[in-house]
Amino acid sequence: MEAPPRWTLRRERALYWLVDAALAEPLAALGWPDREAVEHALRAAAANGRTATAILALPGRSLRIHLRPVRHGGLLAPVWRGAIWGVARPVAELRANARLHAAGAPVPQPVLVAAHRARGPLWSAVLGTVHVEGARDGLAWLTARPARSELLRGARAAGAAIRRFHDAGGSHADLQIKNLLLLAPGGETEVLVIDLDRARADRPPSPARRMRELMRLVRALHKRGVAEQVGARGCAAALSAYCAGDRALRRALLAHLPRERCRLARHAWLYR
Q1: Residues whose CB falls within 8 Å of the CB of residue 271, separated by 6 or more in sequence, listed in order
Q2: Is it true that the peptide bond before 26 is cis, omega within 30 degrees of 0?
Q3: What is the pLDDT of residue 63?
Q4: DSSP state, residue 123
Q5: Phi and psi torsions of 253, nearest 5°
Q6: How far apart are alpha carbons 27 and 132 in whole angstroms?
Q7: What is the pLDDT of residue 170?
Q8: Is 15 helix (H, G, I), strand (E, B) or coil?
Q9: How many alpha carbons lie under 13 Å from residue 82 in its C-beta half-sphere?
């Protein structure tokens, strides 16, 4: 697979290194992509517990890199011991992130994939994006109990951001509250969509797919116990901002609401 323009690709038997060419030199000054440097980042991420991320400062640069280990989740996660099968998954995520960022979607700026062969066909990998200073994920933002006016402003910003993400051709595999980043530069709330593992970046999704992702976000609010805090007004504000006066889109979305409400009811029973 050839590296896209502006990216530097280095592929060896036990190393995969895909990096923004503009940042290759300051990363090299820190030892990247050598195994020791990458494993140090993985250990730093593991020390952060459930957040499983680390922040890397670059010499001579004001920006910092947000590093996330690429791992398998679920019940079999201990079996994999932090490894993944091949490098296709993180590379696909980086490329989807890059396409969406170039298309103007509200996603972090992608920086790198670094992977080293762990054993046999198994690799340890980390994915990097530009760290968004001062941002909080949606759950942390809600846990801070924002004022009602601020909450509605955040709900509208989230709806508008997800609409831009979809219109840019993005489809998210796990659109949930922790995969939204909120920040308020100059008093205006902005939202970024993050964690694009298994995301697609091709054509704008259908209304059915859009509504499925929006309602997945609603289900996440219930699962995390913050649905009542957002309330009907918050959900309505997000949907109105998403539709942005497009009545045809709103009707197309609402046509799929009964099925999604049934799915929400099933999940709510499981949450209990």
Answers
A1: 222, 223
A2: no
A3: 92
A4: E
A5: -65, -45
A6: 18
A7: 98
A8: strand
A9: 15
What pLDDT does residue 269 have? Answer: 74
SS3 112: strand
The long-range contacts involving 98-104, CB below 8 angstroms and separated by at least 24 positions, are 98/4, 98/7, 99/169, 99/201, 100/165, 100/168, 100/169, 100/170, 100/196, 100/199, 100/201, 103/168, 103/169, 103/201, 104/164, 104/168
Type of residue numbered 43: R
**Residue 125 β-bridge partners:** 70, 115
- HSE, side-chain direction, 13 A CA sphere, residue 213: 24
With vertex at residue 97, the alpha carbon angle to CA 93 and CA 98, rounded to the nearest 5 degrees, is 120
Residues of the chain with pLDDT under 70: 1-5, 48-51, 72-81, 271-272
Position 77 scores a pLDDT of 53
